[in-house]
Give the backbone structure.
Amino acid sequence: MLTETTQALPPRYVSPAGPPSAYAMLTRALSDPASVISDAIYSDWSLKLPGPRSPVVVSHPDAVRQVLLDKDGAFGRNRQLRMLMRRAWGKGLAAAEGESWSRQRQAAAPAFKPAAVQSAVPAMAAAAERAARSWSTDAPIDLSVALARIVTEIVMTTLLTGLDDADLDAIAADVPPFIRAAAHFGLLDLLPVPDAWIDRLRGMGRGAPEQRLRAVAARLAAARATPPDRVQDIAALMRGAGPLADNLLGFLPAGLETTAQAAAWGLYLLALYPDWQDAVYREALAADATDPTLPIGRQVVQETLRLYPPGPILVRAALRHSELQDHRLHTGQVVILPVFAIHRHRQLWDRPDAFDPDRFAPGAAYDRGAFLPFGAGPRLCIAAAFAQTEIAVMMAVLLRHFRFTPAAPEPVISLKTTTHSLTGLHVIATPRRG
């Protein structure tokens, strides 16, 4: 056990101390729901946001399971979540419902089976090795940016192959603004008008990052429109199961942003906690650094995902009158599952704000309903195992090249769409000798 109870706590999101004002609800509840959820949710099991039929926030694992497993069909997506998925995925996998979703998910599934993930490990390690050789050690590195470039190369050489001339730097740079635009919501989105009208008013489809990413997806779809296929990647598997260009576009932000942010947080945490950094380094040095099952590395990945979950908020809506965590829900009423708070809940975790990978050591017990980095139920992220393997391999490879120490500025955490730092995640990367 390496954790020292006297160590400073890692950065955390600062939740408001009390209920939100009417102004906050009007201006931020749709676009940044975490910013209107009071810090009581870290110790209470539920709360209701102010206003008639306003969202209910629940954090008890049993209530979370009730919503996400949805065995009686009482919960579904609300309008804003459907709009977000449609903006990013069109009619592709993550936006689809019913039979279309089932068909597309079944088609994509082989790309994320254990054997397929393992076959991608050499490409993951190679991308990290190439990055390590190119990194400057003369100035601080923003891990958020640097890891995004590595993950982009991994995705484009394993899951979305076929464009050998793709500008990986441009793709990595275009994904975050595209996500921000797709996830931008406000009072305009409450108007009882067709979604297409709102998208037009929002300027969806006209932003340069979105246009460039759509062009990449269209080129890739054209290049992979017919067999033969060198590899059974997403393009090969999903051809004919759904709109190919939509799915290729959707997998770009889905496969890039969340994984890159999680990997950046993992290395930043190791920079803050040198004992754990040394432990992961020694493990990687003594074994095959590309082995994603190395136990200490895997524990660090899981603890990183607990402290900084890629998807900090899950949202559903009641499809009919029902009850949840002592709340009566009306049809259409929104339910918020605050993953960021569940992962740090005072009644679910010991020292919840501390970085302690030992809580995921072999044989350690925890409520699986309290650990939801990739969701749960039928809509569990299809690429969860792939993403965790990516993070473990990248960390191990990079730690064999560098020792990381934190650098200014301090992270300022935002939970809008993903868990990320508005100021970046800066470190000094010192080459290892010998």
Remarks:
- The chain has a mean pLDDT of 94.
